[in-house]
Amino acid sequence: MQLDAHHISASPAGLNAHALPTGTEFCSGAVNRTGINGLSQCGTLGLTTGTFHVSAVQPISYVIEEVEGLLDPDNKTLLRGVVPDSFPLGLSLNPAQPGERRLVVIDDNVYRIYGAQLRQYFSLNGVEATIVPLPTMEANKSFDLVYEVARRAEIFKLNRRKEPIIAIGGGVCLDVAGLVANLYRRNTPVIKVPTTLMAAIDASIGIKTAVNFDNRKNKLGTYCPPLGVFIDRTFLRTLDQRNISNGAAEMLKMACIKDAQLFYLLEQHAEQLRATSFQDKAASVAMRRSIQGMLEELEPNLWEHILCRLVDYGHTFSPEIEMAALQYGDELLHGEAVNIDMALTTQISYARGLISREEQARVMDIMQRFRLPMWHPVCNPDLLLKGLRDTTKARDGLQRVPLMCGIGEAVFVNDISPAEITSAAAALKSFALQTSHSSSENNNIVAAPAKIAMPV
Ligand SMILES: NC(=O)c1ccc[n+]([C@@H]2O[C@H](COP(=O)([O-])OP(=O)(O)OC[C@H]3O[C@@H](n4cnc5c(N)ncnc54)[C@H](O)[C@@H]3O)[C@@H](O)[C@H]2O)c1
Predict the structure, then answer these.
(1) Which of 213, 238, 263 corresponds to the end of one domain?
(2) CA angle at residue 261 from 192 to 449, to 5 degrees?
(3) pLDDT tens column, 67-91
(4) How high is the pLDDT of residue 2?
(5) Is 304 in the pocket of ligand 1 (CB under 6 A)?
(6) 107 Cβ below 6 A of ligand 1
(7) How far, in Å, is the centroid of ligand 1 from the Cα of 56?
């Protein structure tokens, strides 16, 4: 796998795309046709038994590329289309020709900054672009937005064989556009252009799409691979510092449980990465390591059939915390909620003797230097327990909580007790309240103090 162009290619584990059903009985009379369908290999089986076994696999293949100057009219990357008759849909090397069309769904804040450049890009290339700016923020991440984008696709009379939807924005925009692409005519290709750090290293590169539903985070969603993902780091220059730190939380996640080198890099360069909005050389390495690590975890488990997922670090309590904060009227960004979850589980790891006091302090030091919150008023033990219960249910009855056990290492545990949560929460809360002179970007949430006095 190259670092600057990641190719994802997978089939559901346990299924071999070209394996025939085993057993002479099942295959007796099989017509030896090429293809991946189980039934087509079985000849008269259904006719003789009345029982039909359908078996197929969906190959996944898409490319994630770093791109410089994505909106430079001479750069044709964004004009790439669909390889005719490809399965799975393939990203063509050929750009759209003058007269061709594109439907572009874009976050409205991103549109305000880059709209003129985007319009000029398509116009100078002779491509007729219908650009749809939408308020793709977390509070709007519902099926209403999905419906709105689908309506625009219908008005556009999108030709899904030739005209990929282009989605440009943060994780919310890409999740919504991805879901529409999966629903509209059952599968429309989508090109994702992440413009936040969170989206570049996480939300854009997997195959999950979702919107919130019934006050529950990402409860309606699908698995839908993009046609391609183009990451132009210069978009981050206009992203505010709070959202930069928000993305850094997901990066710290990978560092804590999987990548000690990335951890050292963040330790050495945290302030600089934040201050330069991830524009310098260290940022390039950090982003690539982060993406590489994430893809190593995602690729063999795209459909999440393996429930012990390292990438779930920080995602046990955080969905509940994130949605409660939204209701509370003091929104936490996704990465901020993840960070609070990581602060809590770091405390649990320390209390269990899985990490040393010094290692805990190093983690919290990075959190502090990225100005990430470690606490929020909604984090009472009842809410945290509910979060754990919900996650346990989603993980098929076992907690499967990844806990740090050293820098860059993790173990899965199934026995976190209510008492442990209560005690960790109390330690973290008093630690946070001691330092209520918040240095966080969000004034209502509590970040780490300038000098870390560790919770006991
Ligand atoms: N599908 C997945 O696998 C996956 C993974 C992680 C997160 N997510 C989802 O991603 C969402 C969070 O994504 P996010 O953090 O990107 O938030 P976001 O999409 O809400 O964007 C954050 C803010 O930044 C603004 N913005 C975006 N790009 C900008 C730019 N270049 N310059 C200036 N402003 C810009 C947006 O208008 C928005 O206000 C959550 O809903 C989360 O559930 C999905």
Answers:
(1) 238
(2) 90
(3) 999 999 999 999 999 999 999 999 9
(4) 42
(5) no
(6) yes
(7) 34
